[in-house]
Amino acid sequence: AVVLCAYLERGSVDLRDRAVIELGAGTGLLGIVATLLGARVTVTDRAAALALLESNVRANLPPELQPRAAVKELTWGKDLGNFPPGAFDFILGSDIVYLEETFADLLQTLEHLCAERTVILLSCRIRYERDLNFLKMLRGRFSVHEVHYDPSKDVHIYKAQRGGCKDEI
């Protein structure tokens, strides 16, 4: 999350007044930074993480920015009806590619949330063959490019977009 936050803080993308969703937020650092950079952010995770996530978002955002950050439950591949398809300009995720059994659900969630204009930014370490398998699966559905690599932390940032899918809003 720290590497992707630094990437965003450098102004690599303009988040001002953009609709952003963070997947698998954990502590919420990435969503908090995106909110501070001017985005309207939906910070998501599974039910078990929501209390800590909500607490961190409230503790780390000034009161005037708190309405720009909503904490919502999202289990990949489920709950998708609670999120309008294609409603987000950016989808952010840090260190969410690690459980192979979640890959298909994560891809289904990304496809549901994506419009043609949506930019997906994922930061991760490539630790195992399964991580490369996820990137291969992602490339099967999206146009994917590495946009940054931090050698000190061994973290890659990938940008993915639909690139020509037809069923758009």
UniProtKB/TrEMBL annotation:
SUPFAM superfamilies the record matches: S-adenosyl-L-methionine-dependent methyltransferases (SSF53335)
Keyword vocabulary terms for this entry: Cytoplasm, Methyltransferase, S-adenosyl-L-methionine, Transferase
GO biological process: methylation
Annotated compartments: Cytoplasm
InterPro entries: Methyltransf_16, SAM-dependent_MTases_sf
Classification via Pfam families: Methyltransf_16
One cellular component term from this protein's GO annotations in UniProt: protein-containing complex
One GO MF term attached to the UniProt entry: methyltransferase activity
Reaction catalysed by this enzyme: L-lysyl-[protein] + 3 S-adenosyl-L-methionine = N(6),N(6),N(6)-trimethyl-L-lysyl-[protein] + 3 S-adenosyl-L-homocysteine + 3 H(+)
Principal place of residence: cytoplasm
UniProt KW Methyltransferase keyword: yes
Family the UniProt entry places it in: Belongs to the methyltransferase superfamily. METTL21 family.
Record protein name field: Protein N-lysine methyltransferase METTL21A
